[in-house]
Amino acid sequence: MSQPDQNNFSATLLARRELLRTGAALMFIVGIVLFTGAGIKADYMLVVAAMIGGYMAINIGANDVANNVGPAVGSGALTMAGAIVIAVIFEAAGAVVAGGDVVGTIKKGIIDPQMIANTDTFVWLMIAALFSGAIWLNVATALGAPVSTTHSIVGGVLGAGIAAGGFAIADWSKMGAIAASWVISPVIGGVIAASFLYLIKRTITYREDKLAAARQMVPLLVALMAGTFSTYLLLKGLKKLWAVEFGVTVLMGFLVAVLVYAVMRPLISRSTRQMENDKHAINRLFTVPLIFAAAMLSFAHGANDVANAIGPLAAINDALLYGGIANKAAIPLWVMIIGAVGIALGLALYGPKLIRTVGSEITDLDQSRAFCIAMAAAITVIIASQLALPVSSTHIAVGAVFGVGFLREYVKAIYARVVHEIELHHQGGDKEVVERFLEGFQRASHKQRRVLLQQLKARATPARLAEIEQEQLARSYREQLVKRSALMKIVAAWVITVPASGLLAMLVFYAIRGAMLP
Per-residue b/e over 92-123, b at no fewer than 16 CB within 10 Å? Predict the structure, then answer.
């Protein structure tokens, strides 16, 4: 087949896949219309709201779920198909089993419901917020930018609320806290992930006998993950089923960690007997914990973030059935099913694009790096929940990916500078001597490398370089392991999420009100 023919075939195949995805999504929306319109005999406004809620759920599945499974896929711990299956099952289970019976009608309390004129205005406001949030998520997914679905719906509620009741309707202190989370979430996630990666490097991969170090540290790390995720699941995933005090959750997490350590220590000891003493073999020990983490993150996400899709829909249903505007609205089973099925469908149809973005297009990940990202995601949410910080799970996960990448850049730069210093000390000497020293230096542990460098400096004087040459060398050490284009695109998308969805919600609200008024 010639090159033009191959290009035409690829373009045709891509178009067919896109058509199939679009067709499946449309069939889901049509099914919602038939169910709500004929089965429930609902108000036509509820039918419209249900359609938009389903559209929102699809976009949440397409964009937000990637944060839970992307690092595991990028590291090779899970295949794309395996990750989608796990995420679909646990997202749906979290939504249906632990999604709760009621949901807040005004997301994050950012507007005052008492300033909304009447029930009709409230319904229009919620439809505008839901629709604008869904459209912005759709745009972000098409651009390959993982954004916060919570911030998307917050922007929609804020914009439609201002359109309905003026600027005084908004709680600007709450909005300030949400804006601060744009910085807080990724920074905390990045610092925690980088700290764990540095710990793994110092205690395992920088050691001469990596297997002996792994027998000591990996059971501890896996036990810490099990305890952390148990606490995380009780605080976030199961809080609507079983409300437990923070001290009790920590104690239960500690007991789980002790149990897992007792089980993992002999397992890791047996697993490492036939392994090679290298980094790749050590990485494989983190594969099963990563699969566990992906499942638990997906379950907790389904239990919490399904409210972004069904919260406004449940509020509209409550307002149309009972009149008035309540702070909490009951979640009918059919509403929960729309949210759960929509998220699963969006993940299966459109999720791979964002999974690849998070897993491999920001920085290269292996299992140990992905482990650090998962730990950062859980620990940051636990800390934030106790400090009442309105953090975003999307920002935390992506910030953790960047944190891991930037630590790798820093370590690489230091190592390159040290290697260059060794070459300067041996300048003019036998090339084979230099190569043997570098080979021994690369095999040495972190502690041994420091000794070698001290010995080298004691017996030789390095060549002095001009200041401009030193700056040029410093720049050459900065090997970019984090793609700057991805960094700029994602940060830009984060910054404009609330304003973009807010402005769009204003326009949609005015259009609906103009069409509905006599």
Answer: bbbbbbbbbebbebbbbebbebeebeeebbbb
Give the closest residue to 108 by CA, choosing from 308, 319, 395: 308
Q: Identify which of 359, 237, 358 has the alpha carbon closest to the alpha carbon of residue 305.
A: 237
User: Is the overall model pTM greater than 0.90, yes or no?
Assistant: no
The DSSP element (H or E) to which 395 belongs, if any, is helix 393-425
Task: Specify the residue for token string 């009447």.
Answer: 118
Q: What is the mean pLDDT of the chain?
A: 83
Q: pLDDT per residue over 241-269, tens digit each?
A: 777 888 899 999 999 999 999 999 999 99
What tens digit of pLDDT does each residue of 69-116 get?
Answer: 999 999 999 999 999 999 989 988 888 777 665 566 565 678 887 788
Output DSSP code: residue 107.
G
User: Bridge partners of 170?
Assistant: 111
Phi, psi of 6 (to 5 degrees): -60, -40
Evaluate if residue 216 carries a pLDDT over 70. Answer: yes
Residue 71 · residue 287 · CB < 8 Å? no
Q: Which position has the higher pLDDT, 162 or 339? A: 162
- Per domain, the residue ranges of the chain are 18-409+481-516
C-alpha pair distances (Å), 300 with each of 1, 154, 227, 310, 469: 49, 20, 15, 16, 52
pLDDT bracket for residue 421 (50, 70, 90):
low
Nearest alpha-carbon partner for 238 in 224, 225, 223, 253: 253
Tokens of 65: 């779920």
Vertex 463: Cα angle to 462 and 469 (nearest 5): 125
Residues contacting 172, CB < 8 A, separation 6+: none
Residues 225 and 256: their CA atoms lie apart, in Å, by: 10
Cβ–Cβ < 8 Å for 304, 238: no
- Asked if 109 contacts 177 with a C-beta cutoff of 8 angstroms, the reply is no
The CA-atom distances, in angstroms, between 495 and each of 267, 270, 330, 457 are 46, 49, 33, 48
CB 195: neighbour CB atoms within 10 A?
Answer: 16
pLDDT on residue 465: 43
Can you give the C-alpha Rg of the chain in angstroms?
A: 26
State residue 466's pLDDT score. 47
User: 417 or 272: which carries more pLDDT confidence?
Assistant: 272
Four-point Cα dihedral 266, 271, 275, 279, nearest 10 = -80
Place of tokens 């938009």: 52
Of 411, 389, 393, the closest CA to residue 401 belongs to 393
For residue 496, give the DSSP letter.
H
Which DSSP category does 1 fall into?
-
- Which SS3 state, helix, strand or coil, does residue 51 take? helix
Tell me what pLDDT residue 467 has. 47
